[in-house]
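DM from R.C. (forwarded with permission)

"hey, sorry to bug you on a friday — could you get me a structure for this? deadline for the figure draft is monday and I only need the backbone to look sensible"
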Amino acid sequence: MVIADIVFWYQIAFTSSSFASAHLPSANFLDVGQGDSELMIFQDGIKVLTDAGPDATVLGSLESVLGANDRFIDVAIISHPQSDHYGGFNYILDHYRVGAFIYNGRDDAPGTKSWSALLLKIAAKNIPLVTLGKGDKIIIGAKGSGAAKSDKRITNVNDGDSNNGEIDILSPDQNFVESGELNDTGLVELVKTPQFKVLLTADTGFDVQDALVAEGVDLSADILKVAHHGSKYATDATFLTAVDPRIAVIEVGAKNTFGHPAPETLARIAASTNVTVFRTDQNGTIQIWRDGNVFKIVKGK
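My reply, with the result:
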């Protein structure tokens, strides 16, 4: 029976209907072109949006998941200050209310107008801006007033006593957050729900990922957001073995000029894991949730 349960756990079903139940958590990988944006919806409808792609494209993808009337994001996370990850937040703030922003404490290059504009909008709307790093957690509580309470160490979403999940920040530590390579500073998030786990890896490369493996950090997850749009400098075989995902998602723009995802990375994923791979350039926005023992997936294309 144990073996049978494992088999059922990793079944994947495809459906043409959009995710509708507010009672089941879902992982939504938004099609924003050449950029990242992941919307985690927890039980009771609590929403955490990590990154928002480079531009206004995120608005259509968000609406395809949330509908036209839901205009509140509990927590927004900027994985690291590069425009293909934060640029869309400038447009989101014109159309959505946001309870709190979280970032790694780093800034984009001096004089970068889109970064300065975003910080000004956050401040003008009196939205808390919280710096988190390795060892910090976001505890997901019961749906309450819709406000987010924040401090430096732990962010509690709403005031309920129930734990609908959590987000563990695995990186950056003090060394990586000060790196001259902004990709090293990316917030690596292990998202835990009662039904499944998701590992969000930002644009981190071999150095960060190998450090996590060497430290013995529990990286196991059902769903992996492949780092850096499938760059050849990220997601090696050792890291893939440690995560052991059943679903991998590559967020990448069609006909991008970077050659993402790299053939070498696709080959490593195929050789190192028993995984089903989805790509936003081929599949559009990807919605994933677990219904009983089956992962169900809606593709936007």
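R.C.: lifesaver. The CA atoms of residues 39 and 106 lie 22 Å apart.
me: no worries. The chain has one domain: 2-15+22-299.
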